[in-house]
From TrEMBL:
GO terms for biological process: proteolysis. This is HK97 family phage prohead protease. Keywords: Hydrolase, Protease, Viral release from host cell. It comes from Sedimentitalea arenosa. NCBIfam families: proheadase_HK97. It holds the Pfam family Peptidase_S78. GO terms for molecular function: peptidase activity. Residues 22-162 form the Prohead serine protease domain.
Length: 185
């Protein structure tokens, strides 16, 4: 988890249901319910419901960003909904933007397969295991990212091994800590 003016970020790999078509259409899970991420957080089913309804009422959408940078929208989420597994998203990368084209190429090559949510926690509690159970979230954006925080929702490429996955997890944790340290300065 990372915070910036109260906005938190939660990372997840696309998941097994990832679909990329026409080089610009993407769909998959941005968050999975009931799974503990590397920050010790668990999102409960229904946590996004009120936020999605509120956005729809005012005619707004969840934003699609590049690496959580609000200056770099790279597409449009046409559909964002909760199902039994988690927060499912479907959208279009804008190939009229440089980052949109780059993201499409990176996804096609298998170099980018992470999604991350940007949100504010409205309701949470601690579990007996010391985890933070997120029960109501205000969803702001879903970004395409390099290093997600929820490794269990990842797509394995041919040739991936457990050793490679462990190394990538360590690298992701190290980079996450470095980003937090830089943000403090």
């Amino acid at each position: 988890m990372e915070t910036d003016n109260g906005l938190e970020h939660k990372f997840a790999r696309f998941g097994d249901g990832l679909s990329v078509s026409d080089g610009t259409m993407i769909e998959g899970y941005a968050s999975l319910f009931g799974q503990t991420d590397q920050g010790g957080d668990v999102v409960r089913k229904g946590a996004y419901e009120a936020s999605l309804v509120a956005l729809q009422k005012v005619g707004q959408r969840v934003k699609m960003l590049w690496q959580h940078d609000p200056a770099q929208p790279i597409g449009v989420w046409d559909e964002v909904r909760e199902d039994d597994q988690g927060l499912w998203v479907k959208g279009r990368l804008l190939d009229s933007t440089q980052k949109g084209r780059e993201a499409a190429a990176l996804i096609a090559a298998g170099a980018l397969d992470g999604l991350s949510i940007g949100y504010r926690t409205l309701k949470a509690s601690k579990t007996e295991k010391g985890q933070r159970l997120l029960t109501e979230l205000e969803l702001w954006e879903v970004s395409l990212v390099t290093f997600p925080m929820l490794p269990s929702a990842r797509v394995a490429a041919k040739g991936d091994s457990l050793a490679t996955e462990a190394t990538l997890r360590e690298l992701a944790a190290t980079l996450h800590c470095a980003r937090l340290e830089l943000a403090r300065r």
